[in-house]
Amino acid sequence: MIWKFNLEGFDEATPLIVKMIWLQHRSMLWHMERMLRWSEDLAARGGKKAVDPSVGTPKMEIRKFAKSYTHLQELMLEHAQMEERILFPVLESVDRGN
Fold first, then answer.
1. Strand, helix or coil at 66?
2. HSE of 65 in the Cβ direction (CA atoms, 13 Å)?
3. What is the DSSP letter of 53?
4. What residues contact 19, with CB distance under 8 A and at least 6 apart?
5. 82-90: average pLDDT
6. Predicted TM-score (pTM) of this structure
7. Contact indicator for 28, 76 with CB cutoff of 8 Å
8. Residue 25 scores a pLDDT above 60
9. Among candidates 28, 26, 24, 38, which has minimal Cα distance to 66?
10. How far apart, in whole angstroms, are the C-alpha atoms of residue 98 and residue 84?
11. Other Cβ atoms within 10 Å of 58 Cβ, number
């Protein structure tokens, strides 16, 4: 699946926080799909040869995969923290009618 990271459908009236959250969700989905395709490829090859010689040996490819996985975890943690600090308090205040 190909994701577009543009803001079609949003206009000047769309709050910046909504645009930011939408872009973060799209980014995380893109990273998750990339990791899924990569892991399926690794599993299909059984850890044998690297598909792209530029990634180096299978051991080097696994290290790069682990680094990408760690990056995805960091993105998701940052996103969750942002929602907890910014979005959820706003939603709670609206729910209470403040």
1. helix
2. 19
3. G
4. 7, 10
5. 86
6. 0.68
7. yes
8. yes
9. 38
10. 18
11. 15
Separation between Cα atoms, residue 76 and residue 24, nearest integer Å: 9
Residue 7's pLDDT band (cuts 50, 70, 90): low
Amino acid at residue number 12 = E
CA angle, 70 then 2 then 28, to 5°: 30
**Within 1-98, where are the H helices?**
16-45, 58-82, 88-96
Q: How many CA atoms lie within 13 A of 17 on its CB side?
A: 10
CA pair distance 55, 39, nearest whole angstrom: 14
CA torsion 21-26-27-28 (nearest 10°) is 90
Token pair for 48: 């044998």
Provide the token pair at 83: 């929602």
* Amino acid sitting at position 96: R
Residue-wise pLDDT tens digits, 63-82 = 889 999 999 999 889 889 98
Domain positions in the chain: 56-98
